[in-house]
């Protein structure tokens, strides 16, 4: 309900009031369950990032929260959910380097803690072409690809359940399919890039072959192997 109020306030141009409600909601979440963000928390963060793109005070406050949570982690509170939130904010700020630099410090302080959040930072490591570093925290090629494939299949099951339980318009179904395929392909591209640059080309080609047989996107995936 609060997020609906925030959206209505933004539509009316009442940005100050909208930001105040976002801050209040964030503080309430952090007070009661800082390590267990629910769907509302993720929606709040998504809304805030969207708001920050058009409103400087919203962006400044989000940057302040980013600094506070970065310090929390550096002080030893290496919580996986907080790190995930920081990764999302950093990506929105086009500051992937900040995520990787923070992970470097975590790894130096506690390899065990680094292992807990490594799955979150792999995308950022690949973005910065830190392929060998990313590979350090990945499973076997088969296991990594298996996880991507399983998630994609689960998305398909979800879509079938939604179609059977409600009358989804065809354009909505198409949108779902497009998003699910995009997420899968991006994951496959990252995995192939890492394997190619860590001398596991045969495994990369096998994954490419299977992914193409599953959904197509042959040109996209082949380009990654040629990179």
Taken in chain order, the helices and strands follow as HHHHHHHHHHHH
Counted by DSSP, the helix tally is 12
Shape descriptor: globular
Average residue-wise pLDDT: 87
Helix vs. strand class:
mainly alpha
Proportion in β-strands: under 5%
Count the E strands: 0
CA-based gyration radius: 20 Å
Q: Give the low-confidence spans.
A: none
End-to-end Cα distance:
47 Å
Largest sheet: none
Residues in helices, as a percent range: over 70%
Please characterize this protein's 3D structure.
This protein is mainly alpha-helical. The protein is built from 12 helices and no strands. Helix 6 runs antiparallel to helix 7. The longest helix is centred in the last third of the chain and has 28 residues. The radius of gyration is 20 Å and the shape is globular. The model has no long low-confidence stretch (mean pLDDT 87).
Topology:
Blueprint: H1 2-11, H2 15-32, H3 39-52, H4 56-74, H5 80-92, H6 96-109, H7 111-127, H8 131-136, H9 141-165, H10 170-197, H11 201-215, H12 218-226
Helix pairs in contact: 1-2, 3-4, 4-5, 5-6, 5-7, 6-7, 9-10, 9-11, 10-11, 10-12, 11-12
Q: Could you list some keywords that capture this structure?
A:
mainly alpha; 227 residues; 83% helix; 12 helices; globular
Brief write-up:
The protein is mainly α and 227 residues long. Helix content is 83%, strand content 0%. The longest helix has 28 residues, at 170-197.
